Amino acid sequence: MSSVGKDSKWWKPSPTLWLVLLGVVVLVAIFVHANIKAAHIEDVLHEEFRTIGSPPGAKLIGEESLHKPGVVFVGHTYALSSDFKGVREYYERELASRGWVHNDERHSGDEIVIEYCKLQYAAKIDYFVNSEAPVRYTLYLDWGINNCV
Q: Which helix (H) or strand (E) holds 20?
């Protein structure tokens, strides 16, 4: 006769096991919900990119995008024959017209990062001062990895 039968403890899990299983189900549900939210926010940021556009003559040379629970990041890298002043003026005007507010500017060696906020989202322009023509810069939009509230 088999040791696993109708009266076996295998068929009668302890209350502790049920609590552990319930905890796992709750954690999976939280993770799935957070991932769905991040995917939605990624779609929102992609749409924001479409509305912001890029300066005349800018050529898209790279795209990055990722989402995970609590973090969304979308970036486009462009090449442009004009100087950074024109890039900066374009984004100051376009972002301000869409409700973005200048938040911070950091200079580190040859790199300039200008940050704008809109609600809990950030837009960052990352530019290397000594890059040769054509000028290359990246515009990032993110959620969950910024100082915007």
A: helix 15-52
Residue 96 is encoded by which pair of tokens?
């301000």
Task: List C-alpha distances in Å: 12 to 16, 24, 131.
Answer: 11, 19, 69
Tell me whether residue 134 is in a domain: yes
Site of tokens 């005349």:
56
Q: Hey, CA dihedral for 116, 117, 122, 123, is it positive or negative?
A: negative
pLDDT digits (tens, 9 = 90+) for 113-138: 999 999 999 999 998 877 666 778 99
| Whether the model pTM is above 0.90 | no
Burial (CB count <10 Å: 0-12, 13-18, 19+), residue 126: middle
Would 3 be classed as within a structural domain? no
In a domain, 8, yes or no: no
- φ and ψ at residue 25, rounded to 5 degrees: -60, -45
Q: Is 128 helix (H, G, I), strand (E, B) or coil?
A: strand
pLDDT digits (tens, 9 = 90+) for 19-73: 777 787 778 777 776 667 778 889 989 899 899 999 998 999 999 988 888 889 9
Residue at 67 is within a domain = yes
Between 30 and 148, the more confident residue is: 148
Cα atoms in the Cβ-side hemisphere of radius 13 Å centred on 47 = 7
